[in-house]
Automatic annotation (TrEMBL):
<keyword id="KW-0812">Transmembrane</keyword>
<feature type="transmembrane region" description="Helical">
    <location>
        <begin position="301"/>
        <end position="321"/>
    </location>
</feature>
<feature type="transmembrane region" description="Helical">
    <location>
        <begin position="136"/>
        <end position="156"/>
    </location>
</feature>
<keyword id="KW-1133">Transmembrane helix</keyword>
<dbReference type="GO" id="GO:0005886">
    <property type="term" value="C:plasma membrane"/>
</dbReference>
<dbReference type="GO" id="GO:0004930">
    <property type="term" value="F:G protein-coupled receptor activity"/>
</dbReference>
<feature type="transmembrane region" description="Helical">
    <location>
        <begin position="266"/>
        <end position="289"/>
    </location>
</feature>
<feature type="transmembrane region" description="Helical">
    <location>
        <begin position="93"/>
        <end position="115"/>
    </location>
</feature>
<feature type="transmembrane region" description="Helical">
    <location>
        <begin position="51"/>
        <end position="73"/>
    </location>
</feature>
<keyword id="KW-0472">Membrane</keyword>
<dbReference type="GO" id="GO:0007189">
    <property type="term" value="P:adenylate cyclase-activating G protein-coupled receptor signaling pathway"/>
</dbReference>
<feature type="domain" description="G-protein coupled receptors family 1 profile">
    <location>
        <begin position="29"/>
        <end position="319"/>
    </location>
</feature>
<protein>
    <submittedName>
        <fullName>Uncharacterized protein si:dkey-30c15.2</fullName>
    </submittedName>
</protein>
<dbReference type="InterPro" id="IPR000276">
    <property type="entry name" value="GPCR_Rhodpsn"/>
</dbReference>
<feature type="transmembrane region" description="Helical">
    <location>
        <begin position="214"/>
        <end position="232"/>
    </location>
</feature>
<feature type="transmembrane region" description="Helical">
    <location>
        <begin position="18"/>
        <end position="39"/>
    </location>
</feature>
<dbReference type="InterPro" id="IPR017452">
    <property type="entry name" value="GPCR_Rhodpsn_7TM"/>
</dbReference>
Amino acid sequence: MNTTGQLQGWQIDTLSRLYLPALSFSLVGSFSVVLASILKRHGLKDQVKPLVQLGLADFLASALLMGTNILNFLSSEVRSNVLLCELGLPLSLMFYCISFLLAILYACESTFATQGWRERMGQGDQQEIRRRCRKFWLLYAGAWLVPMCAYVVYAVTISTTMVDLLPVGATASSDSSGSLLPPAEYCTSCLLFLHIRDDNCSDVDAAHDISVRAMLFTSLLSVLVVCTVVYCKLYSWCRRYENSPFFPVEGDSLSSRRLKGALSSVRYIILIIPICWSPAFLLLSVSFIKQVTQEQLFPLYVIQALLVSLHGFLNSIVYAWRRPNFRDAVLGERLPLLSSRPYFEESLTPP
């Protein structure tokens, strides 16, 4: 009987095995976007900037998360090095945070390119458009540098706060207060959000744990709110112009299909992050309730492991491979992304 309420060995092993195939999809999907964007950069033009960065952030996040899960299948000597887990998991979360920030910039740049360029062309503000495009470069740099700086501070200060691990091979025992200590196998298991509450395992101090949670909470809330607002406005803009005389979208014309494709892309983009990260957000929230044990949260751990792992794969589908113009540019068919087609999914960059 599990008297500690923590995840048992078979549950940890199940979660570790679920992560690997799901993360493999994300690795392949994100890497394919990066590779295709680089090889076809002349056809994709300035689309390379957001697509490569987003694909690279997703690829690194998935690769690091897979690496930390592989630790669970290695020898006890390797697993006992808790520093690998304490540094690896926050590093993967750092790249997920970068991916969230890039998604926000992608949304803002899409709105600017769609509304600003096509509504203001001919009004003599081309220089202003170019200046705003240069500002996006600075914002993209900040999306990488800010989380990286936060992680460096975390990594530099973590070594001064860690304590010794429970000896490898030890079994559950009681401390001086009579509370049951978990076995070393549990303490050395490296899974996302496994040690998110006080479980008597060797760990960093509370300040570092809180900083990781705060970073994840802040980035999740920011991307959910900003992307939802921005894409909802963009969706309304597309709907408003659906029957505009400037956009011949009647019937089954190519223009009609393009606009419907743009509206569909916006809907899917809005749904990616809530679908993938709502279970993780709920898991973090419920972890503060002491009455709910980890073992009771096991189904939520399973859902969270599957959906978080598929984040990079779904991003590669929605942001790249699902879009006909991306496929056409990669396959060398029809026109590149910088053609003058007047729809959201055709370009992020003014001519």
